[in-house]
Amino acid sequence: MIRLFFFLMFLLPIAASAQDTIYVVEQGGQFYVINRTTSPSGYVERAQLIGSAQQLYDYTQGTFARAASQLKQAADVILVADRYWTQAIAEDDAFFKNFGQRPMTAVQQSTDSTFLMDTYALMVGQSVSGLTFTRAADGRLQVSVNGGANKLVHLVNSCMRIDDFTIAGAMNFYQVNPGLWVNAEKTHIITRTEQKWLPYVEQQD
Q1: What angle do CA 180, 139, 169 make, to 5 degrees?
Q2: Do residue 139 and residue 177 come from a single domain?
Q3: Residue 205 lies in a domain
Q4: Which of 87, 113, 162, 192 is most buried per CB count within 10 Å?
Q5: Which structural domain range is residue 27 located in?
Q6: Long-range CB contacts for residues 54-59, cutoff 8 Å, separation at least 24
Q7: Which residues of the chain have pLDDT under 70?
């Protein structure tokens, strides 16, 4: 007889994705950790034998410790985000001054199609504002909030910095999924409300 004991999703806040369900079952006195990964075509389960209740206890302690270590590493990166952006923007400006090209703009233009074609909104608490993304004359991304002045957007893959976004100054956003960006404090959320642009998918013969 197989008995379900508890779910472990909360033990792996960073390692587990939103499509993963992790839980513990017991069979014949032995405990297993089951990782179920769900996709549009169904799901796949992988079982890991842990052993006795004492071994499960030790495993769970280690899971707490590993997740906390990952969380600390992620926090370290977020804490130096402003320094990263200051240096990256300065290097991009220096490259433009010397060679007339912006490497950061090239990276931005490889991923900014969704912002230019889809519809996005900004949510701050219960307040919702419309966002309009466009490219400036020099090709750099910019955004207007509710039709206001354009603000420069620095976009590098899944990280984004918007200059003068609030009274306090620039704000950094991180991509949670293809249509959702949040700041580290989760006080400001940029969400896609309408999708028009679809990424190219090469057809298999």
Answers
A1: 55
A2: yes
A3: no
A4: 162
A5: 2-79
A6: 55/31, 56/24, 56/31, 59/33
A7: 1-19, 199-205
Measure the CA–CA gap between 136 and 140, rounded to whole angstroms: 5
- Residues with Cβ within 8 Å of 166's Cβ and at least 6 positions away in sequence, in order, are none
Give this prediction's pTM: 0.68
Residues 16 and 67 placed together within one structural domain of the fold: yes
pLDDT of residue 18: 46
Sequence letter at residue 111: T
What CA–CA distance (Å, rounded) separates 47 from 31? 10
Q: Are residues 31 and 73 in the same domain?
A: yes
In a shared domain, residues 190 and 110: yes
